[in-house]
Design brief:
The complex is a heterodimer. Chain A has one helix and no strands. By secondary structure, chain A is mainly α. Chain A has a domain of 32 residues. By secondary structure, chain B is an all-alpha fold. Chain B has two domains: 176 residues, Tetracycline Repressor, domain 2, CATH 1.10.357; 152 residues. Chain B starts with 10 loop residues before the first helix and ends with a helix. The N terminus of chain B is likely disordered. The chains are: A mainly alpha, B mainly alpha.
């Protein structure tokens, strides 16, 4: 693991970008699970 | 035996730890070209199953297979970083080049594996999820960690991982894996050795340098060319079989017959050639001996087209069967 104190500005930017990407991917996964749940429930969604 | 962890997690990290990764490096970790073929064959299995499926669930099934394939690729690149660094074909990959740390590739592979299997299980069914989990595990552990470095039959047995996606697609749609699904498996399983060995014939010194016992390295080019021909003689009839089991129609039969004749012709031409002979004696000339390697290159290129055409024919026939029914309501 590289130490944050020794990071170059470029590496720090890449790390921040990676963190945002991970957050986005997790959010997308949550949405996907929600959509799949609704679809699988189908017409019984309001029951 | 599964080999102990090699230098995969050490060399790239220590050598290039400060190199920042680009977004494309993470895409590369997923082996997008392999993924595209896997997705295509899985989609064909899903459509050929012939059971109407909610489009969103169908898309999620294909996405799960794609993510699972990507996870396998990331795990493969994590473990193989040490040998990838030695081969011209693979030395620029994200881990050996130091742009992505080996630990990151491992984490990405594990997380994506779990997510893809969970998603498949929740959205479709647990048979498809189980097959997907088996495929990822087989590719990452049995093929990558064990067979690849220990036997010239590595891709013969390991090819099962690449052959399973149509069965996964079929299982995702129906919750079952009948004979026709396994026929699609058989075609890819028999196709993999001649396809991979044709490539290995003109990258022999690359594999030899990395200590990977691919068939041309372990048994020599002549034995490899013969094995390619023998596998082709089994593959072509197997690829015709779907036309007689109800899986494929006349269009598929025509494609399989013409493509099979072309495959056999190229395999026979390769068997009669000296492709790979001088490459083993001249490691420095890996990609230089173009004329001599041409029969192997031609078969390798044609094999991709052949498999694509077979599955495209199946896909097209089943889509054409479904479309009129949809129009009739």
């Amino acid at each position: 693991m590289s130490h944050p104190a020794q990071e170059t500005p470029e590496a720090a930017k890449a790390r921040r970008w990676r963190n945002w990407l991970l957050a986005g991917a997790l959010f997308a996964f949550v949405i996907l699970v929600f959509v799949v749940t609704i679809v699988r429930l189908g017409g019984h969604v309001l029951d | 035996m599964i080999e102990p962890m090699t230098d995969a997690a050490q060399v790239p990290d220590q050598a290039h730890a400060a190199l920042p990764a680009r977004w494309s490096d993470y895409v590369m970790l997923l082996k997008p070209r392999v993924m595209s073929l896997v997705v295509f064959t899985a989609l064909t299995g899903l459509v050929c199953a012939g059971k109407p499926l909610n489009p969103i669930l169908a898309a999620v099934a294909v996405l799960s297979v794609a993510v699972g394939a990507g996870a396998s690729g990331a795990l493969n690149m994590w473990y193989d970083a040490d040998i990838d660094a030695l081969m011209r074909r693979t030395h620029a990959r994200p881990v050996p080049s130091g742009r992505v740390q080996a630990a990151d590739a491992l984490a990405m592979g594990i997380v994506l594996s779990i997510l893809s299997v969970m998603l498949m299980g929740m959205a479709l069914n647990w048979l498809a999820a189980g097959l997907l989990a088996f495929t990822i595990g087989f590719y990452a552990v049995v093929y990558t960690m064990w067979l690849k470095r220990s036997t010239p039959l590595n891709i013969v047995i390991g090819g099962a991982a690449g052959a399973l996606p149509p069965v996964i697609g079929w299982a995702a749609a129906t919750g079952a894996a009948p004979l026709n699904a396994w026929l699609m498996f058989l075609i890819i399983f028999l196709w993999t050795p001649p396809h991979s060995w044709a490539l290995a014939l003109y990258t022999t010194s690359d594999y030899a340098k990395a200590g990977v016992p691919m068939m041309p390295v372990a048994k020599g080019p002549a034995a490899t060319r013969l094995r390619i021909l023998l596998y082709s003689l089994v593959l072509v009839p197997a690829a015709l079989a779907p036309a007689f089991t109800g899986l494929g129609g006349p269009g598929y039969l025509a494609v399989a017959a013409v493509g099979g004749a072309g495959f056999l012709a190229l395999a026979a031409r390769l068997a009669a050639s000296h492709a790979g002979d001088s490459l083993t004696a001249r490691p420095a000339g890996l990609y230089d001996v173009k004329a001599q390697a041409k029969p192997a290159r031609d078969l390798f290129a044609f094999s991709i087209l052949y498999l694509f055409a077979l599955f495209l024919a199946l896909l097209a026939e089943h889509l054409l069967r479904i479309a009129p029914l949809s129009l009739l309501g």
